[in-house]
Design a protein that fits this description.
The protein has a three-stranded mixed β-sheet, with helices on one face. The protein is an alpha+beta fold. Helix content is about 40%, strand content about 15%. It has a single domain, classed as P-loop containing nucleotide triphosphate hydrolases (Rossmann fold, 3-Layer(aba) Sandwich), CATH 3.40.50.300.
Length: about 120
């Protein structure tokens, strides 16, 4: 299977504009992905990694993640689970409390990721 042609959201919006972006993505197929597993199995981290590595984050999301990481005096890699775990209690406890949905697309398909 060939690698998906991934372009960052900012590049797509700058090139196509809002209307062009919406028109281009209107007829794409949709794939829904649900994560499930035990506590601390890495479900949120997996979704965060998918979003990060596929360049499907806005600059302000990545900046906020870096600020949060620096504010925690953390060392090492960014805590990508924080891209999905938005509730304060989730961040403090390091667990997902509420279902979170994230949307992104490639040139071929749209995706909905559900973090449970």
């Amino acid at each position: 299977m060939p690698a998906a042609n991934v372009t960052s959201l900012n590049e797509q919006l700058n090139t196509l504009g809002i209307r062009g972006y919406l028109q281009q993505h209107q007829d794409k197929g949709l794939l829904r992905v649900l994560t499930c597993g035990s506590v601390d199995d890495g479900k949120s981290t997996l979704i965060g990694r998918l979003l990060h590595d596929s360049q499907q984050l806005y600059d302000d999301q990545l900046d906020a993640l870096k600020r949060d990481h620096k504010g925690r005096n953390s060392e090492g890699e960014l805590e990508l689970a924080m891209l999905v775990d938005g509730l304060q209690a989730e961040r403090e406890q390091g667990i997902t409390i509420d279902v979170a949905y994230r949307y992104f697309s490639t040139t071929e398909r749209k995706f909905i990721l559900a973090d449970t």
